[in-house]
């Protein structure tokens, strides 16, 4: 299984947000163990860095969070063509559209997210971490 992890799945683990942390952690653990091919977008990496630095006031902690993320998932390249495709869709949320476009371009099976509605109409199934775990178990 090949998945694109939405930023909220990663943040749920970093901030231990209940009731989402447990299943999000399990999905990321499966990625880390290479039982699932996990990807993140470039924007997720920069968002994680920004949020960790903002809330911890520590550049060191932000780099550690990004370093751990890079051990768990691969960063999906964003091409000029990906940006053009996403731009032409004129979606309400350009960032989500770009994530979906990149996920499609690398042939992901799913986008792992808590906000499935954010990815409706982009031609790739969005599933929750819980739904991923149910498929694997």
Would you kindly provide a written description of the structure presented here, covering whatever features stand out?
It contains 7 helices and 5 strands, in the order βααβααβααββα. α1 packs parallel to α3, α2 packs across α7 (129-136) and α3 packs antiparallel against α4 (59-72). The model has no long low-confidence stretch (mean pLDDT 93). A 5-stranded parallel sheet has the order 3-2-1-4-5, sandwiched between helices. Helix content is 58%, strand content 12%. The longest helix is centred in the middle third of the chain and has 15 residues, at 42-56. It has a single domain, classed as Rossmann fold (3-Layer(aba) Sandwich), CATH 3.40.50.1010. With 137 residues, the protein is α/β, with parallel strands linked by helices. It is globular and about 40 Å long.
Question: What is shown here, in short?
Answer:
With 137 residues, the chain is an alpha/beta fold. The chain has helices spanning 7-14, 21-32, 42-56, 59-72, 80-89, 94-105, 129-136, and strands spanning 2-5, 37-41, 74-76, 110-112, 126-127.
Biggest sheet strand order reads 3-2-1-4-5
What is the CATH C-level name? Alpha Beta
Low-confidence stretches: none
Number of helices: 7
Instruction: Estimate nothing, just give the exact number of structural domains.
Output: 1
Q: Can you give the helix content as a percent range? A: 55-70%
Q: Using only CA atoms, what is the Rg?
A: 14 Å
